[in-house]
Specification:
Number of strands of chain A: 3
Radius of gyration of chain B: 29 Å
Oligomer: heterotrimer
Strand order of the largest sheet of chain A: 2-3
Chains: A alpha+beta (94), B alpha+beta (476), C alpha/beta (497)
Structural class of chain A: alpha+beta
Largest interface: A-C, 54 and 69 residues
Distance between the termini of chain A: 35 Å
Distance between the termini of chain B: 46 Å
Bound molecules: magnesium ion, zinc ion
Helix content of chain B: 40-55%
Helix content of chain A: 25-40%
Number of helices of chain B: 16
Shape of chain B: elongated
Radius of gyration of chain A: 22 Å
Order of helices and strands of chain A: HHEHEE
């Protein structure tokens, strides 16, 4: 069960500005999905290690050797708002 | 400490050290500072869709070196996590960092215990529009990703420190230690060493920790000391007034000395850590450890021990030389070519350091050979202690050879009966009150006599010799 | 045989032998792709046919939108990346291009690969060539529809919980999800990093093997890539299934499978027996928890992977007075419903206090599921299931019920959780629409799996050109006993021999 307050909290964490209708809808849809998901709560998982990788690899390291970077105009090509050779963003608080 | 009114400060430090690798933590962009914005970026460090991180082997090696220098356990297997928070200086919306299995854990440096040390990537730089000098219609910031992705080692101490002064001294030791490893510039002013402090106070004799505050962004050793002192005083004043300390993050303004709360990010504590699926574990095997061990130089703490032990240098001076690496290095250079005892050489190095800008003797015109010679001349009493200091002043100003300076300025010690005895007799005559006291066995009165002799000889007399002559003359 | 009817491998062969003109092939497919009325392509190249070189000899390739392609729109089906042209090319695409396959176009998909119907694309749905009123499956629905409709000889897609295999099944083509780590993920716009894997969508198993051969390989840019350890991917040859042990997991073949699909599945099991295979029941005791684990792990990883879409460096931006407002508006406007839903779910599962109950438990379930497969593979060479419990469903049918949509992934989700390979091959028509037969095997069993799939394919005699023309499509639609007979015996849509 995920209530309205939780939906708002999670949306805030995820930086989603949900509409009022979406808050209502997600609350009910996500609760429905979570009901199914919560079946794993019944499993006895004592002593079962978690799987974070299915590949058994370690130490994929890279030599500390510089390679060419992107030309700055390429780096900035997709910027919605470039300014002064950088990416413009609005102030942290209005 | 009286001002603390029965409270004991408890301080822990979180230190970020920028590694001086050639490339970034997770991509092959060159690490370089001071260039135009966004010239050192690529799909990885710009967080472009589809790009993946790859760990810099040299950063792992550097972290192991730091771990060994701090006497940490090096984790045989450590992993990276994603730490999520959205901010423009973090291109992926998460920082790749280490969480529950850091590469280094436990350990200590001096008497301060190390909780952990882990690897992570640095954020990019936000330049406020005002700073870039261009009016843009709206305020805001411009992001420069050159710094973004620089390898960092974050070192977290246990709350073992108890004053700003101690924190400053310990940070100096940490800086020298890391500098000796050659893995970072560790320069606070330039941001390659950054320090935050967690501060609380508690009544002396109690063990429970008080409510702590976090002091951020202190960008010099002096500010660390002053900032912590100011925060400790603030907390004590609150408690004395019966008011609670509120858990918050503070910024110390070194100009006004004031502490201001940083705007709290209401979800800052929900970082949603989970294991980074794009990276595989780092396994530090015997070979990697052996490589790092072989590369470990003598570290300041060990150096201080050696100076105080084998070399017989007074403990505080031994620490000063060892913890300020440049002093220790200069000391080593002088001691290597001097016949004078190490403890005497150490004294001369400390005296010289006080006279030169930045306290680095290597940056002065005094060559180690010259200081070595001066120490020998003073030790042999060829030059009196006072005159030797005059020679040191000359050396610090213009460099040169101490023997030549002594010769040219006539600073050689006036020794022996024939030269000195007439001066001593004259002094006793000129200071009859002091002479009388001395005759009554009041040796403290020798001061004015020695002062008189020194004035007459321009400091060239040897104080011990003067004393001997006075005793002989007066039969005391 | 016309140029259009040539499979990818045969077209490459014909070009090499000088029997086909690569320029003509390029023009043929360029025109077909440009005239696409299924919504399968989001971008079609208007360049001249590239020079022919390499093993793939100029045979055009369809590439799922989410593969970054230098200078070419690469939007992952999302409005938030509308018009985005990356400065670099994904390793898998670069390898195929290096082997001589020119990129014909970028194919439509569910936004950020989140979906099983292609209705979640930010640029409109894709229609199933067998019935334009139905979905092609998803998320690689554009690639599947394009191959099935003969708009391109072959294509690549990505599979996180079934996103190659399920649309391949629903469109009547071959689709393979390789072992995790076989193909580099570098340049694939990530959905769920520990599950995503690129693979081919093709007309037949030989094409699948040939494309895969040129996709696999260790990549220094992807720390989780292994390449293919046992030499190279081999092209399958004729043969039988003698001695091959096929396990039928009860948990994935029981309730929920439409009768017509079940019937096709069982008929093919009979064929396999006739070819010498041993077929027996087996069990994956924890498979019933796979959907739950998957819908925790994938959204959790996605919630972090999609945090980079913030309106700062690329893509859509909606202005706001301050940072938070700009972020909120940009992401609200740029992401579709399903993406928001999964970001919410994943953020919730990782948020303070819930990690142990959700994400960590899901990762433990993953261990159990991998263990189930390992146990089964000690007795069986491959596990077999219907790829999808249903045939293609009508557009709009499931959009209002996310859970129902999620549950339809039951047969394809367990394999990526265990990182193992699986292939879907066309298994004839069920109710007049394609169904798929899935084989799953141990990690890096691709060569044996392709061989077995090829043998079955030969026996099933599927015609991959069945939906190439509108006429063929409408003929198939007319032949289909409409909804009234769904669930009844759909009659002998006998495989053509
Ligand atoms: Mg940190
Ligand atoms: Zn970079």
């Amino acid at each position: 069960m995920i209530d309205r307050a939780q939906v708002l909290h999670v949306a805030r964490l995820a930086r989603l500005e949900l509409s009022e209708a979406e808050v209502e809808r997600f609350s009910s849809e996500l609760s429905h999905v979570l009901e199914h998901i919560e079946r794993i709560e019944g499993l006895d998982l004592e002593g079962v290690p978690p799987t974070t990788h299915v590949v058994d690899l370690v130490n994929r390291l890279r030599l500390d050797e510089p390679r060419p970077s992107l030309p700055p105009e390429v780096a900035l090509a997709g910027a919605p708002e470039a300014a002064d050779g950088g990416f413009h963003v609005p102030p942290a608080a209005a | 400490m009286a001002a603390l009114g029965g409270y004991e400060p408890v301080i822990g430090l979180e230190i970020h050290v920028q590694l001086s690798t050639r490339t970034k933590m997770f991509c092959s962009c060159a690490l370089a500072f001071g260039d135009p914005p966004n010239v050192h970026t690529c799909p990885v460090c710009l967080g472009l869709p589809g790009a993946l991180p790859v760990v810099n082997a040299r950063a792992i090696h550097a972290a192991i070196l730091i771990g060994l220098a701090l006497d940490c356990e090096i984790a045989p297997r450590s992993i990276f996590h994603r730490k999520s928070y959205m901010y423009p200086d973090l291109p992926k919306g998460y920082q790749i960092s280490q969480y529950d299995v850091p590469i280094c854990a436990g350990g200590h440096l001096g008497e301060i215990r190390i909780h952990r040390a882990h690897l992570e990537e640095d954020a990019a730089k936000l330049n406020h529009i005002g700073q870039s000098g261009r009016i843009h219609g709206s305020e805001g910031s411009v992001v420069d990703f050159n710094r973004g992705g620089t390898p960092l080692v974050e070192i977290v101490t246990e709350p073992d420190l108890h004053s700003g002064e101690q924190a400053r001294e310990w940070l100096t030791l940490l800086r020298t230690t890391i500098r000796r490893l050659g893995v970072s510039d560790v320069n606070m002013e330039e941001g390659s060493l950054r320090c935050d402090a967690n501060i609380s106070v508690r009544p002396v004799g109690t063990t429970a920790l008080g409510v702590k505050t976090e002091l951020k962004n202190m960008n010099s050793f002096r500010f660390v000391e002053r900032g912590i002192a100011a925060e400790v005083a603030r907390q004590v004043a609150l408690l004395e007034a019966g008011e609670p300390v509120v858990q918050e993050t503070l910024h110390f303004d070194p100009v006004s000395g004031s502490l201001t709360p940083l705007r709290s990010k209401e979800d800052a504590n929900d970082y949603r850590y989970f294991p980074e699926p794009d990276l595989v574990p780092v396994v530090v095997g015997k070979e990697m450890l052996a490589d790092a061990r072989a590369e470990l130089p003598e570290l300041p703490a060990a150096r201080a021990e050696r100076y105080a032990g084998k070399l017989g240098i007074e403990a505080a001076r031994a620490r000063l030389l060892a913890f300020r690496g440049e002093l220790g290095d200069y000391f080593e250079a002088v001691a290597a070519v001097s016949e004078a005892p190490a403890s005497a050489v150490a004294t001369w190095v400390e005296l010289l350091a006080a006279k030169v800008p930045d306290g680095d003797p290597a940056a002065s015109p005094v060559t180690p050979a010259a200081l070595a010679r001066l120490a020998e001349l003073a030790e042999a009493r060829t030059v009196s202690a006072g005159a030797a200091r005059t020679v040191l002043d000359r050396l610090a100003e213009h460099g040169g050879d101490p023997a030549a300076i002594i010769e040219a300025e006539g600073l050689g010690a006036l020794g022996g009966q024939d030269t000195l005895l007439p001066v001593v007799r004259a002094a006793l005559e000129a200071q009859p009150e002091a002479a009388a006291k001395l005759r009554d066995g009041e040796m403290r009165a020798i001061g004015p006599i020695i002062g008189h002799v020194m004035r007459e000889t321009r400091g060239r007399a040897d104080g011990a010799e003067v004393t001997r002559l006075v005793r002989a003359e007066l039969g005391v | 045989m016309s140029l259009l009817e040539l499979s990818g491998a045969r077209a490459a062969e014909a070009i090499r032998l000088g029997e086909a003109d690569p320029g003509e092939l390029w023009s043929l497919y360029r025109e077909r792709a440009a005239g696409d009325d299924l919504g399968a392509f989001l971008w079609v190249s208007d360049e001249e046919p590239p020079a022919v070189a390499g093993a793939l000899a100029g045979v055009p390739l369809g590439v799922k939108d989410l593969f970054c392609t230098e200078g070419v729109p690469s939007q992952a089906g999302s409005k938030i990346l509308e018009g985005y042209r990356p400065p670099y090319t994904a390793t898998a695409v670069a390898r195929l291009e290096a082997a001589g396959a020119p990129v014909l176009g970028k194919t439509n998909q569910d936004e950020f690969a989140m979906g099983s119907s292609n209705e979640n694309s930010g640029f409109g749905p894709v229609r199933n060539p067998w019935d334009p009123a139905r979905v092609p499956g998803g998320s690689s629905g554009g690639s599947a529809a394009a191959v099935a409709a003969g708009l391109v000889p072959w294509a690549i897609g990505t599979d996180t919980g079934g996103s190659i295999r399920q649309p391949a099944a629903l469109c009547g083509i071959v689709g393979m999800k390789p072992t995790y780590g076989a193909v580099s993920r570098y340049g694939m716009i990530a959905f769920a990093s520990s599950l995503d894997q690129a693979g081919p969508l093709t007309r037949d198993v030989t094409d699948c093997a040939l494309l895969l051969r040129h996709m696999v390989g260790e990549d220094p840019r992807d720390s989780t890539s292994l390449g293919f350890p046992d030499g190279e991917i081999a092209l399958p040859v004729g043969g039988d299934l003698a001695g091959i042990r096929l396990g039928v997991p009860g948990e994935l073949t029981g309730e929920g499978i439409e009768p017509a699909v079940r019937e096709r599945f069982e008929a093919t099991l009979e064929i396999a027996r006739d070819l010498g295979a041993e077929v027996a029941e087996c069990s994956l005791p924890h498979a019933e928890y796979a959907i739950a684990a998957y819908y925790l792990i994938a959204p959790a990883e996605a919630s972090a992977n999609l945090a980079r879409f913030d309106g700062v460096r690329y893509g859509l931006r909606k202005e706001g007075r301050d940072l938070r407002e700009m972020y909120g508006r940009t992401r609200q406007a740029g992401f579709g419903d399903e993406v928001k839903r999964r970001i919410m779910l994943g953020t919730y599962a990782l948020s303070s206090g819930f990690y142990d109950a959700y994400y960590r438990r899901a990762q433990q379930v993953r261990t159990l599921i991998a263990g189930d497969f390992a146990a089964a593979f000690s007795s069986f060479d491959f596990l077999v299931t219907p790829t999808s419990p249903t045939v293609a469903f009508p557009l709009g049918e499931r959009v209002t019920d996310p859970l129902a949509m999620y549950l339809s992934d039951a047969c394809t989700v367990p394999m990526p959780l265990a990182g193992i390979p699986a292939i879907s091959i066309p298994n004839g028509l069920a109710d007049g629409l394609p169904s798929g037969f899935q084989l799953a095997g141990p990690a890096f069993s691709e060569n044996r799996m392709l061989q077995a799939a090829h043998v079955l394919e030969g026996a099933l005699g599927w015609d991959p050109t069945g939906a190439f023309t509108r006429e063929a499509r409408s003929a198939s639609a007319q032949a289909r006993p409409e909804a009234q007979s769904r669930g009844q015996n759909a009659g002998p849509d006998a495989p053509r021999r």
